[in-house]
């Protein structure tokens, strides 16, 4: 039977050393969803395929299917997103972004919508002056695309709390537990979910409200996507 060969667009989510000279890369692709790819000889700094296997890279890949992995035959970098590594906060939030996508996606599954979100988020985040804003927008959009969109009220009158398994609910409906939130937090949730990534602007939102949104959304992702914790964010300052 002939070996399946595919050309696809992909975003590198993670890479690990395999054996003495190879790398195994997990990437999210437009055609196959999340897949594992063996890159022969990519551990060497002189390898022509090494740049194609770096985390955050967006490229066009030529692959062949094996029993356990796809194999990297070649490709072309479309965006290296190297600027992600030049600023600490960008690196932390970029690492958390790909970690969430990697750990919450099943092998061989994915959607073009999530692929597009990953590509655009990394592109904007790599140069963002406020990387936290882009990360939060990615998180709420991603978890919504995965089928776990948090509850967000249309009106902001009354008292509300945030529950990590549901979202924003009226205080009287949520019981004694939950994080109390105000109208700024509710507005921020709506803005992050419904505004395109390149138009996210939280300049009028207080730092305290943004931090509340961060705590709520990261807890929501951990609970609903069953991640235990987001390892990359342990280095957040």
Automatic annotation (TrEMBL):
Domain DNA replication/recombination mediator RecO N-terminal, first and last residues per copy: 7-80
Keywords linked to the UniProt accession: DNA damage, DNA recombination, DNA repair
Gene Ontology BP, a term: DNA recombination
SUPFAM superfamilies (alphabetical): ArfGap/RecO-like zinc finger (SSF57863), Nucleic acid-binding proteins (SSF50249)
Top-rank taxon: Bacteria
Keyword Cell membrane: no
Keyword DNA repair: yes
Database matches in Pfam families: RecO_C, RecO_N
A single GO cellular-component term on record: bacterial nucleoid
Residues forming coiled coils: none
Family membership noted in the UniProt record: Belongs to the RecO family.
Entry function: Involved in DNA repair and RecF pathway recombination.
Protein name per its UniProtKB record: DNA repair protein RecO
